[in-house]
Amino acid sequence: MRSVTWQEKHAAGVYSFGARQAADQTAAQSVTYCSDLLEDFLKTISRMEREYLRAAFEGETFQK
Asked: How far is CA 44 from CA 17, 34, 60, in A?
């Protein structure tokens, strides 16, 4: 039994226009969500860095 690749299905027109639009929208939402996560991560890292530098400047000691 031979399996059919995504490209072959797509070329054969198995997927409707609506299904392709839905897939494109889902992919766009996923990218936006990942972008938001990355932005939150970078904000958190920047905040932690500022707190660390402030504490180091003020002479606080850190536990390892």
From this structure: 41, 15, 21
- 32 residue type, one letter: T
Asked if residue 9 lies in contact with residue 15, where contact means CB atoms within 8 angstroms, the answer is: yes
Give the single-character DSSP code of 59: T
Q: What's the whole-model pTM score?
A: 0.46
Instruction: Report pLDDT digits (tens) over 17-62.
Output: 667 777 777 777 777 777 888 889 999 999 999 999 998 888 866 6
Q: If we measure between CA atoms, which residue out of 31, 34, 5, 9 comes closest to residue 20?
A: 9
Q: Which helix (H) or strand (E) holds 15?
A: none
Element holding 4 (H helix, E strand): none
